[in-house]
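quick one before i forget lol
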Amino acid sequence: MNAKAIQQPLKFRQFGSDNGQIAIYFHGAPGAPEEGEFFEFYAKEHGLRLICFDRFSCDASLSGAAYYQFLAQQISKQAAGKQVDVIGFSIGAFIAIQTYSYLGDSVRNLHLISAAAPLDAGDFFGAMAGKQVFQLANTMPMLFILLSYWQGLLTWLFPKALFRLLFASAVAGDKALVVEQVFQSRIIKVLMMCFLGRVPGYVRDIRSYVQPWKDTLSDLNVNTHIWHGAEDNWTPVAMADYLASVIPGCTSTKIFSGLSHYSCLYRAMPEICRQLGTVSGGQSLLK
């Protein structure tokens, strides 16, 4: 563990209102804080201060419990004693769950979008489009690291080629998204921020995810909401079913028909912003 990594504040991007209810967004992997730009309008409309930390810029020597504790410390600094809402997308949902252990009562709600469930909890591989990457990260970590740096090189030289590779298996709502120029531009920007200079951080999150962690879910007592696409082939809907069945604090599960991974994110975030936000005068929209 690198002591300097603990002392240095973690960079973040902020979207929406400067003084609104704080919502912490954990981006995916691959991913970057720039994902928050997708939802700038909704965060501002509903008075949210949406914060996304640049996790992959955090010193890669910081891992395990020390990593999650560090993230919790950075969140607490921004919260300044107030409760926060936490949103996790894809593998970011896994990081959010682990970080929650060090935040406790300071979290008001936890929203898990297209969440990646623990691989030690069931036979999910067969339905996962990226199963080879996770298998490599688990059984041949050095090859996985080489693959990740190759993705970085491809991002630098031919970013559109990496986009096409990642979304070659797109289905349902994602298939419609990938042909949109705005979506392509946004995701390519995210990929560049992820893989150019941040590969070690990306590798840390993936390698952490493929380790056993199902036992940590029994302590998740916070008010938890699950949002998932019925046709998701990155994190299959069976993962949502599993999480809903084992998380003690799960109070709602929304499965969107005809949506997959990113299309679920695009559908869920406006609704989450509406639920968490405030109207003029400071009255909460939560019932």
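fyi Confidence is low (pLDDT under 50) at residues 1-5, 279-287.
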